[in-house]
Amino acid sequence: MNAPAICSRYRLTEIYATLETMLRLLFAFFFLLLPLAEIACFILVGRRIGLMPTLGLVVLSGVAGIVLMRIQGFGVLARIRQSGRQGRAPGKELLDAAMILIAGILFIIPGFLTDIVGLALFLPPVRTFLWNRLVRNMVVVDIGNMQGGTRPQTGPDRTIDLDRDDFHRDGRP
Known about the structure:
Blueprint: H1 9-49, H2 51-86, H3 91-108, H4 112-122, H5 124-136
């Protein structure tokens, strides 16, 4: 199955115009509508549970975001290393790391709506769902072995490089 090719300058211009429109809408949402919605949520929650508990929840969510980002971030880094050892591209693991970073930032931003979105991004099933949606629209191109140099691959290297302090004999010559 071949990916659709973009073959005309007109088509590229149309795509750039669409992307520009999307970026403007995102800008409007994040910098105009989201703060207004967060203020409305603060007022509603503050009326319901009071000022001090509302402020406590905001501070607690920020601390929770930092802690969760740290805990889950180390797990993702371990999975990225494991993917590299197995010789496969760590695409899903990198997306997980990006979503955890975004989720942590959303938790640190004061507000209840951003906390809800951040909490959703911390959940592995949500990240898997988003990964599956993204993969459907991706075309993976294998460009072969990206090994540099002129030495051919001959198998595992038998050389062990040690510092002088790391080497000792256990009674054997």
